[in-house]
Amino acid sequence: MNAQAEAFGRTIQLFLVDGVPNGLIIASIHGWTGSVLVASQATFDRLRARPEADRTGLYILFGPDPEDSLSMRAYIGEADCVKDRINQSAEDRAFWETAVIITTSDEALTKGHVRYLEARLIEVAEEAGRVKLDNGQSPKSDRRRLPEADRANMEAFLSNLRVILPVVGLDLLKPRPRAVAAPGRPTKTDTEPKFELRHKSDVQATAIEEDGEFVVLAGSEALKNAGYVGTNSYGELKKELVAQGVLTTTEGTDVYTFAKPHVFRSPSAASAVILDRNSNGRREWKVVGSKLTYHEWQEQKTKQEDANE
Hints:
By secondary structure, this protein is of the alpha+beta class. It has 2 domains: about 5-165, no CATH class; about 180-309, no CATH class. The protein has helices at about 5, 45-50, 80-90, 110-130, 150-165, 180, 235-245, 265-275, 280-285, 295-309; strands spanning about 10-15, 25-30, 35-40, 55-65, 70-80, 100-105, 130-135, 195-200, 205-210, 215, 220-225, 245-250, 255-260, 260-265, 285.
């Protein structure tokens, strides 16, 4: 999300078509004519039966990457009649768990618009680097010529998609934390606290929080086998981190080392992997050089932000 988008709030409307949270969802932003329809495999046929699926638009197939269990995979497409094209794409790809159709309530998108948006979505997703794209080609948006006014309108449309797609569970357009995308380069978090986890075993780890994501930095350590059998909900995640080379080991040592930064869903997930047991990361992580816990730091930060409003 760019700085301009962060300057004001948005009202996102989620309509539960079936009246249940696991049914078909239609998402939009107040005042925007765009519509984002979200379905699972169980509701895919109902998605295709919607009148929006007969319109010109885009679609995304999204799910776990079968070649990398730590990552997600996506396919991005466009069509004059989305219903026909998305069905064939879904049959050709077994990885997807979520299907999304993107169109407008006023049928304002033309073939030229969606071809441009397809190219831009692919470009932005590749730059973000969060998912592996299943697209065989990467079309260039500058070759999909549109009048200047239309390009501006489609960039505004894309800006709204950057906001709404993460809300419905698709992070493919959100840039990775710079600590992961460009390790060693300055980030805005350099002026904010780093967090450390120190254990009686002498295992040490350092982390930062960037754009709401908790990143354990390269060089941090994790216990190999703390002996807490059956008490680590993140045991499978730890095995995957070892298998993927995120956690490496040196012969003769009893700890793993983070070979590269890794983003965790929460401070507790990070501390559980590091300590090899279930852990309250909000208490375990402390601001470097102080006794202030992550939880206490977060409370102070919230109070300061409220005071500045």
